[in-house]
Amino acid sequence: MNKIAIAGCGVVTAAGLGMEALQRAVFSNASALQRRELLIGKTSQSVVAGFVADEITAQLRGADAAHADSRAFLFAAAALREAVKNAATILDSVPATRRGFVLSTTKANIEALDKLVRQQPVSAVAQRQIQPAFLAADLAAVFDCRGPVQCVSAACISGLSALQQGAAFIQRGIADVVFVAGVDLISQFVLSGFNSLKSLDPEGCRPFDKSRIGLSLGEGAAAIILVKRELLAAPAILLSGCGTSNDANHLTGPSRDGSGLALAIQRALAQARIAPDNIGYVNAHGTGTPYNDAMESLALRSVFGDRVPPFSSSKGIFGHTLGMAGVLETALCVAAQQNNLLPGTPRLRERDPVAPDSLLVEPRAVANLNYILKINCGFGGTNAALVLQRELP
Amino acid sequence: MKDLTIHAASYLGPEGFGNDETGLRAWPAPLKENLSRGELDGLHWSLLSASDPSRFLRMDLMCRIGFMATELLAVDFDALPEARRESLGVIVESFTGSLNTDIRFAQTPRPSIFAYTLPSTVIGEICIRHRLKGPVLSLIAPDTDGANALTEAAEWLRAGDAEMVLCLGIEAINVSTAIPFPCRKLSRHTAGTARRCCWDGLKICPAKNCSSPARLGTFAESCVPCRNTLAKTNRGKLRLHNTLWNP
Description:
The complex is a heterodimer of chains A (393) and B (247).
Chain A: E1 4-13, E2 16-17, H1 19-27, E3 34-40, E4 43-49, H2 54-63, H3 71-86, H4 88-91, E5 99-104, H5 111-117, H6 124-128, H7 132-142, E6 149-152, H8 158-171, E7 177-184, H9 188-196, E8 220-228, E9 237-246, H10 259-272, E10 281-283, H11 290-304, E11 311-312, H12 315-318, H13 325-338, E12 341-342, E13 364-365, E14 371-378, E15 382-390
Parallel strand pairs in A: 5-6, 5-7, 10-11, 10-14
Antiparallel strand pairs in A: 1-2, 1-8, 3-4, 7-8, 9-15, 12-13, 14-15
Chain B: E1 8-13, E2 16-19, E3 23-25, H1 37-47, H2 54-58, H3 61-72, H4 82-86, E4 88-94, H5 99-107, H6 111-114, H7 121-130, E5 136-140, H8 147-159, E6 164-169, H9 175-178, H10 188-198, E7 218-220, E8 228-232, E9 238-242
Parallel strand pairs in B: 1-7, 4-5, 4-6, 6-7
Antiparallel strand pairs in B: 1-2, 2-3, 8-9
Helix pairs in contact in B: 1-3, 3-7
């Protein structure tokens, strides 16, 4: 079976444009969440979230007038350009027909629908990209991916599910390279929804905090280039296992016992053919909602017993980026693995006593970080887990 | 390579409903427009008269279609042992996804609708109903005809990631309720296209002795490629436009 390696990553987040900006935030345990006054429904509210800076959006609009009012396209294309740049030497040797594309998103360019409903002007391109399938097709065309094209929209596990699909394309031999891009926006639509469910923390999320009360939304894009292992000469980071599951419990809340997430983790470990003890770090979903974080603590204990590996949540850096979260947080894990650094949990004040003791408050350097587990959970009771493996020289 | 065959299939659309054992049955009354909640509610009462309807009544159109298409299958999920349900995967494929509900929510944001603005929510509803905990996948495919879901299911079965897979192809666009521009105001051509997009017959042979290379737990399929996108008319209203998809 073909092994799957990661050849390049690119991101646009509240922390800035590019992987370097993200790494600076991760290494300094800094939060990029900001407070803005926004209209939610008909009332103005103060919202703390991970907004992409207006200067970055303006810069991207200036460089691509045709997509000026499709931020989803602009962000995704920028992330893809960075990832492609990092993987350029490999891509040159792969024909376009062997390049696949997978988009992960929950709502694509949803802010165009907000505008349409409010009778505001929207370009034809921005309207078209309301539909995830069209956004995927447009991005695949721009990046000359003429192999298999797919779009995954599976709530907050979309990103990990998209990486799983990208890996499957290569394993099945229908592509040598797969561009995986994740994108989602902070919009009236999404803010209204989470606000109506009372899921937002007005002071900003505090994952695994004793007094956490909700999440902070985030936006942007992330891209990862997956390649057939043989295309890379040097030791690489491999995507060695994925697993998904359903709680079969509740539409908008996680199962209370963590059994569904534990199943997904066990499936990913089984596919990677490793024992739980091999995992050196877990990047949790860690949204900051009371139920999610408590459920994850239970799931980790269920899989790892009393030897839960060091774990943390990165949502305090850039917020909960929904359909792109899996791709973004996997890119973050790649950076952590390359730098032998365990990320911390920004914005955590007082740790939840229910959380395992191995919760990382601050970043920590380690000698080796060979296996990382990335987990996400979402509406509809969906769970996903992914194992990254660093090859030794 | 494993021998893969279709185990059961069902269909639900404007022409009627049924499964591979019963065949297609017509609706009690001819449909005036697209399949709507009314027909689905009636079918729910007839199939599940003993169950609590409150959960079903909360669902959006996409979930009701997927839920009832699964109920129509000649498969007794409750008889499956727990271990079997943990290895029963669910894949949903759609082109329009949750667009129908997205438009409703954008017009009138209500917490009860928000959870249904995701195309994967139907998976959650079905998994809750039948206590399924296997692998899941929600695809939005520009070239949807159910084939992507079938292909993925076949790969899962071959790789041993699942023992059975429930595949659903769902399109749920109810133009008259979703768009503030009633269907009758659309041109005949556009209205016809919209209806065809919703349901255009069973494309995959549901017969148990089918020689298809795919063996699937179940398959409820409904749609041909839907080439609609939203466009703004010169009147500032929303309407469906028929556009060609050109990758």
